[in-house]
Amino acid sequence: MLIKHVNILLCRSSRMNVVWILVSCLVCFGVSSDGLSGNGTSRPAVVNVGAIFTFDSTIGRVAKIAIQEAVKDVNCNSSVLQGTKLVVKLQNSNCSGFLGMVGALKFMETDVVAVIGPQSSVVAHTISHVANELQVPFLSFAATDPTLSSLQFPYFLRTTQSDLYQMTAIAEIVEYYGWKEVIAIFVDDDYGRNGVSALDDTLASRRCRISYKAGISPGATVTRGDIMDVLVKVALMESRVIVLHAYPTIGFMILSVAHYLGMMGDGYVWISTDWLTGVLDSSSPLPQDTMDTMQGVLVLRQHTPDSENKRAFSSRWNKLTGGLLGINSYALHAYDTVWLVAHAIDSFFNQGGTISFSNDTKLQSVEGSNLHLEAMSIFDGGPLLLKNLLQSDFVGLTGPFKFSPDKSLIRPAYDIINVIGTGFRRVGYWSNYSGLSIFPPETFYSKPPNRSSSSQKLYSVVWPGNNVQKPRGWVFPNNGKQLRIGVPIRVSYREFVSQIQGTNNFKGFCIDVFTAAVNLLPYAVPHQFVPYGNGHENPSYTDMVKLITAGKFDGVVGDIAIVTNRTRIVDFTQPYVASGLVVVAPFQKLNSGGWAFLRPFSAQMWGVITIFFLFVGMVVWILEHRINDEFRGPPKQQLITILWFSLSSLFFAHRENTVSTLGRMVLIIWLFVVLIINSSYTASLTSILTVQQLYSPIKGIESLKETDEPIGFQVGSFAERYLEEIGIPKSRLVALGSPEQYATALQRGPAKGGVAAVVDERPYVELFLSNQCKFRIVGQEFTKSGWGFAFPRDSPLAVDLSTAILTLSENGDLQRIHDKWLARSACSLDNAELESDRLHLRSFSGLFLICGIACVIALLIYFLQILRKFRRTSNAGVVLDGQTTSRSKRLQTLLSLIDEKSDKSNRGNKRRKIDRSISDNNIENDLGRDSRWRERESQVYS
Fold first, then answer.
1. What are the pLDDT digits (tens) for 97-155?
2. Among candidates 622, 637, 633, which has minimal Cα distance to 667?
3. Where does the Ionotropic glutamate receptor C-terminal domain start and stop, copy by copy (predicted)?
4. Residues 553, 579: Cα–Cα separation, whole Å
5. Environment class of residue 3 by beta-carbon count within 10 Å: exposed (0-12), middle (13-18) or buried (19+)?
6. For residue 929, how many other CB atoms are within 10 A of its CB?
7. What's phi and psi for 713, nearest 5 deg?
8. Contact between residue 209 and residue 473 where contact means Cβ atoms under 8 Å apart
């Protein structure tokens, strides 16, 4: 029984202990919760952060000092971390990617909440996978590989500018100076490859490209001999614009070898990424022999705005280093990185975060390993700390420190440096906001962005070779390779291009123009002509141009028309011949026969003139009938009066007087129309009777489209495709291969298996018509183009040859070459022209319209007057009769009123009779006085 009671007491005691433990945990949890939410009362005394970089490297030497000074400043500032001490544990990677990974993994075994570094992009790629797994943010102030900003590495933050912006700045410099191709020399690792890839993309968006990529081994075993082999290949390339993206040790070796090979002389352009300014800023002055190897080089440097804090830190830096080590942009970014971590950790504690770690079950499952992977644990507060890092916003030594949505620092900008003499000078700035400018980027942030070409500007640059003139940027490669210039083998119109029998040489107008243009260039252009075609028919010029993009030809020379589908794939020079499609058709001469007087006007015009003569005569008769006796009488007499008045007005010989105002108005306008018609008819008839006229039923391309007759075109010409595009069926198109086939097909005509017309380019047609007098160009030229020489896209040779062609045109050589090959015979000087268009109705439509409107208005006014009088007459009749008249009687009244002779007419006639009688009496009196005077005179003398 005693044992039983003891067991019961023990059980009760154990239950009470368990309850007590649970209550204690809840109380502790509540206190802990209150403490975490109460302004960081549970902050630890120390927070550990790691830092991994190469201590004895150019970046590492300044970064070490900057980080140590930043830690001091953070711990001395009571407003940050609020009593918690920041401890940064430094780890040297010794310029080794492997040691860098090992050092980073060591940090994962300790209680660090973040790691500053790594310095190397190669190490960053590997260790970022570990950071993702263990949720520890890595903040690199030196790894500039653009691909590290991808979504693949959420726990990697770059606290310096990405090479994506640096390469954009280089691309805009290349575009600013008008260069099209560059050569990239780079270290062949993640840093170099991905940086050059970004450069390639940004150049392509500006229609530029990297013509050659020269990779250098990133290892320490690379020798001057290896670099010399690479640079010798580069020297044989066409481009003279070289972008150097390397590490300082390899970069200086490349510049030294290039100087030894003469590649730092006149004509070359060297653009270095910011690795060089890192050395110049921290190790200046460099030895003179080192400076001699980089004269004229353009260098980029990460831009940091000038500020009071930056100047104070620079002064403090000089005291720390005794002036033996300068401060560069990487040191400033390393300093700000420490402050970024401090601000984020402070926000982390303010939000109730605790520093705790948990085991990674994935690592615990790995058995049979001596790596002790289980020592690495997951940072539980990693997501919250990462969020605070991305949301940080403060002003550091490098300016506003804030991340954009893509995890890049805001306002990327670079200084553009020119190495000259024993130092260097700034020639401008580049920013992602305003582009190239001679003013600091800060001056533009308060203004709207302006990336127009007119706003892009840099100071003058002293280029390699102490040259102040902008280098051309390319030369013909001195590798014994000649340009392969494709030339068509023509079987017709050989005056333009023809192959010399038994050789690969060519002659002709186009060849002479090309040779003369090349001779004007300030450099030699070694080339060879490569024939293209089967020799039996003219080749397709479009297919030949496409071979440039395939790499078979370096250019195409010949009678190549500049048309849209070809300009999409190649670049053309300035046109050296104006061209365009025209229509050639047979014609017949018109003689001045017995019916030539009808030819000045078209049939439609004659018809409208006749109608208007009758119409105007009717209108004048209506307006004059009631008040003018000359327009009254029997119907037959009135009809004759109308016809006579209409026809006699043509010669201004009408004898009838018009007395009404409306009639006179209509007659004046009609006589003006008749004057214009007479003048036009006389001029046209004179031309017909004195100038040789040619006639063709085809008037141009529009009349050809309206028919269904066959149309000829030259084999290989773009005319076939153009005619199809404007709606002419392919079944109507007939391919012709020579001028003789042109003549035969045109003479036969559509009825005998020939063609109605031939459509071809004007230079061919003019040569064809020089000895074919039976045909002429009809209509207008309906396309505008020219002939040029074709080269690959963005070829600098196309630009230089265009300038040479303009020079040939200005000095008259182009015309002399034209006269040499394309001199015309006497036939082409025949001044007979195809029949001018007859005078059509559309040329006089305005006159007829005015006349017609005047007639209609006069008639309306006249009939309104008649209706008004008719209404008064009808009302008076109703009052007298007292009854309403019928419709027929009203109509009879209206007609009688229209035909009734007006009193005005009677008074006018009486007045004219009185005037006539008075004049007759006066004449008789005068005759009487004369007779009496003669009688007296005869009596006196008798």
1. 677 677 677 777 778 899 998 888 888 888 888 888 889 999 999 999 999 988 888 99
2. 622
3. 484-824
4. 25
5. exposed
6. 10
7. -150, 160
8. no
